[in-house]
Structure formats: C-alpha cells, structure tokens
Amino acid sequence: QVQLVESGGGLVQAGGSLRLSCAASGRTFSTYIMGWFRQAPGKEREFVAAIERSSRSDTTYYADSVKVRFTISRDNAKNTVYLQMNSLKPEDTAVYYCAAGTRGITETRYYAYWGQGTHVTVSS
C-alpha cells in the first residue's frame, strides 16, 4: 500500500511559479513510477509528467503542453516527488494529482495509488 499526500497548490498570476510536493508512505517508494496528472473542470484527467527510476538515474516524461516549463523530480530519501511549474498559464488551472504505479507512464489506468489532489489556479 502507498498513501500519497499532495501540497503546494494555490493561486498564482500568469507567468508565475509553483512547486507541488507529493509525500508518499511505504518502504517501496523508490520502485514506483511516480506521475502527476491534472483535471480541469469539465475535462478528463490528463497526464502531466512522470519519473521512472532506472539503474543509474531517473528518466522523466512530460506532456507536450508542459515540456520545458515543468520539471518533475524525486527525493527517495524523503519519499517525496516534486513538480516545479514555471511560466504558468491560465490553461494550467486544474486539480493536480500525484499517482504511483508500476507501468504505463501516461495512462491513468496503470496507476494504482492516487493522492487527493491539490488545486492550482492561474489568473490572467
């Protein structure tokens, strides 16, 4: 079992930055693929970013809409994954969810564990 708790959401002006954190319980945190997804009102939940630990280093994945602006990272010692969001746009407004899974980088169905979500609002 893995429990995930997100934090760091809030209201920010366009062009600003936020850093989301996701604290995970469980001893096997480092073995999971950790992902961030978001869901805007009236829209489906969509992939944002993911990080997968490989033998020597982490591999990161990003949706085209956030590439260059967002950075995902993890601290296995703290059982925490982060999402640094820069140059935020109003279209980034959504509830952001942290998730843990073992395969399927971009698809929600492969993530077994989910946090409760944190709200991000970007004003124009």
User: Any idea what the shape is?
Assistant: globular
Note poorly predicted spans: none
- Approximately how much beta-strand content do the residues carry? over 45%
Order of SSEs = EEEEEEEEEEE
The count of DSSP E runs of length 2 or more, i.e. the number of strands, is: 11
Could you report the average pLDDT, rounded to the nearest whole number? 94
The main pleated sheet reads as: 7 strands, mixed
Describe this structure as you would to a colleague.
The protein has strands at about 5, 10-15, 20-25, 35-40, 45-55, 60, 70-75, 80-85, 95-100, 110-115, 120-124. It contains no helices and eleven strands. About 0% of the residues lie in helices and about 50% in strands. With about 120 residues, it is mainly β.
Quick tags:
mainly beta; 124 residues; 0% helix
Short description:
It contains no helices and 11 strands. Strands 2, 4, 5, 6, 9, 10 and 11 form a 7-stranded mixed β-sheet that branches.
Summarize the topology.
Elements: E1 4-7, E2 10-13, E3 18-24, E4 33-39, E5 46-53, E6 58-62, E7 70-75, E8 80-85, E9 94-101, E10 111-114, E11 118-123
